Backbone:
């Protein structure tokens, strides 16, 4: 079942948990989401913490849109917008569709590492700033609800310096495709 705007118009931690196991495709290439992180407007680690800026404008727009930003000037990171000022970072997925294209984009590395990390995921799926603000309920995106209930592990977010103890990182228990073990 496709995910609609109402799915995303909820608190980011709820959306982050419910996205684990969902199918994410960009132009038909992608797989099952295995790791997410939630960010909220009152969260010191969130890009929205200081309020709207040109960089984070998508976070304050409608739910169910992409928020894409460059991390450390190197890698694109893909988020889904939830309630105003909230978003979920898609940290990793299990490659299932278009694996050959992902291998080409990522330079032939091991399949386990194709989408293990937000920068790797964006490179494998060819996500860039042109996707920022795009609706997730139509091309090039396809997001489908997970078919079965997944066993979820929870822990603190990684790669941040503020709000590090907030347990808003969610992952598929036992997945070999996580960006980092829990």
Residues:
């Amino acid at each position: 079942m496709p995910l609609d705007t109402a799915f995303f118009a909820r608190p980011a931690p709820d959306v982050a948990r419910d996205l684990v196991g969902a199918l994410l495709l960009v132009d038909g290439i992608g797989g099952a989401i295995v790791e997410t992180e939630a960010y909220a407007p009152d969260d010191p680690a969130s890009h929205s913490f200081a309020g709207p800026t040109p960089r984070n404008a998508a976070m304050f727009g409608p739910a169910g849109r992409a928020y894409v930003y460059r991390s450390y000037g190197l890698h694109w990171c893909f988020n889904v917008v939830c309630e105003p000022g909230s978003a979920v970072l898609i940290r990793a997925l299990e490659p299932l569709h278009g694996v050959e294209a992902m291998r080409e984009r990522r330079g032939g590395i091991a399949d386990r590492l194709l989408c293990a990390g937000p920068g790797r995921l964006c490179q494998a799926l060819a996500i860039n700033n042109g996707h920022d603000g795009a609706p997730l309920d139509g091309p090039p995106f396809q997001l489908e609800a997970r078919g079965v209930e997944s066993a979820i592990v929870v822990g603190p977010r990684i790669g941040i310096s503020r709000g590090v103890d907030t347990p808003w990182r969610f992952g598929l228990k036992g997945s070999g495709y996580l960006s980092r073990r829990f």
